[in-house]
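Researcher: Following up on the earlier apo prediction. This time include the ligand. It's zinc ion, with the SMILES given after the sequence.
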Amino acid sequence: MSSPESTARVSLVLVLVLLVAVAGAAYYFGLPEPLENAIGQAMEHLAAATAVQNWMLYLLVSTSLPALVLLGKLVFGRRPGFLDYTNDRFLGLTWRWRYRRFGRPDVPWAYCSVCDTALIYNSEGDGGRMRTVLTCETCDRTVLQHEGDAQYLAAKILRQIERRIRTGEWQTAVRS
Ligand SMILES: [Zn+2]
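Model: Understood. Below is the ligand-bound prediction.
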């Protein structure tokens, strides 16, 4: 059995062996004269200076910057950290938050899962009978009714966010 990865690895080794053989033969027997001349001319051309007007230089440099940034990202592409975990779904809603200093998540806010509008919080009742009603003004509907005040609801979601950061479950949310 050979997987595509092992086939690719064998091909790479074969190409490397071939390159080393060709380089060895060229070193031992010398290169054919036309090839040697062509290489010499190419080296001379690369070593020569080209005078261009400054505006053209700036244009060339500025247009090549995005390509360099892209190349840098490809080569040094960083893996997402938990600070990239800034939204998730809890209680059937989307929640978003930022991070304070030392990577502590700030108070999360709920968004409508249909239209993505930030929801309006209304706490009703008093004492032990408080409840919080979340409404979407765009869809004009009540999205969630939850026991306790808004602070209690936010703290509940915050505990879930911190749990997912601790357990590493955040990585699944960032990938999806
Ligand atoms: Zn909505």
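Model: The chain has five helices and six strands.
Researcher: Noted. I'll compare it with the apo version next.
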